[in-house]
Amino acid sequence: MTSPLLYGCGQYEDVIESVNYIHDEYCREIDRKIFALGFSLGGNWLGMALCKDKRGLSDKVAASACMQCPTKVSASYSNLQTAWGGFITWALGIRFSNVIKDNLDYLVPVYKQLYNFDMIDFLKNLKGVHQFDELLNWRVAKCSSLEEYHHKYSCATYIDKIRVPTMFFFTEDDPIINRTCIEFEKSMNNDNILICNT
Fold this sequence. Notes:
By secondary structure, the chain is of the alpha/beta class. The chain folds into two domains: 10-72 and 159-198, Rossmann fold (3-Layer(aba) Sandwich); 74-153, no CATH class. The chain is built from nine helices and four strands. It has helices at 12-27, 41-52, 73-82, 87-101, 104-115, 119-124, 130-140, 146-152, 184-188, and strands at residues 34-39, 61-67, 166-170, 193-197. It has a four-stranded parallel sheet. Helix 1 packs across helix 2 and helix 7 (130-140) packs across helix 8 (146-152). The radius of gyration is 18 Å and the shape is globular. It starts with 11 loop residues before the first helix and ends with a strand.
């Protein structure tokens, strides 16, 4: 790891940087735009990028699709904690903590210095991946609370600003990202958005 920024709902700037790079390297000279696809939390990042970029990436992206995207991150977060009796958050927590354990020499002093956060103690008591948001990610993102973090980094908050044709697709029976996670009301007022589900 080269950054203390962990996996969370706020990494939309990575999408903007990636789209700019791909477009500049492969599309600018031939005057083409790209089709962007984001899946799950990556779909939220793509939706955020489409909303937060100065031009909405409309100068580089012809159309996009956000598949199984939690436009309302707080709802998917709540579902994650209870889905399959908590098994999913537990299993993802183990997987994620293994990545962090491989980088403890770097992360422990950084988190202690910047956030007064004991990473070793956190990992010992970890019950699921949801605790990264609950106890850490909102601090790293310089938010005042978990609620502010989820609101600020949910594409649902800004979805009415999407300026390129974008499809949001979800399945009704998904235990984490289902109807409760989709922003219908604001989407209805944006002709660029199509919501599909099975």
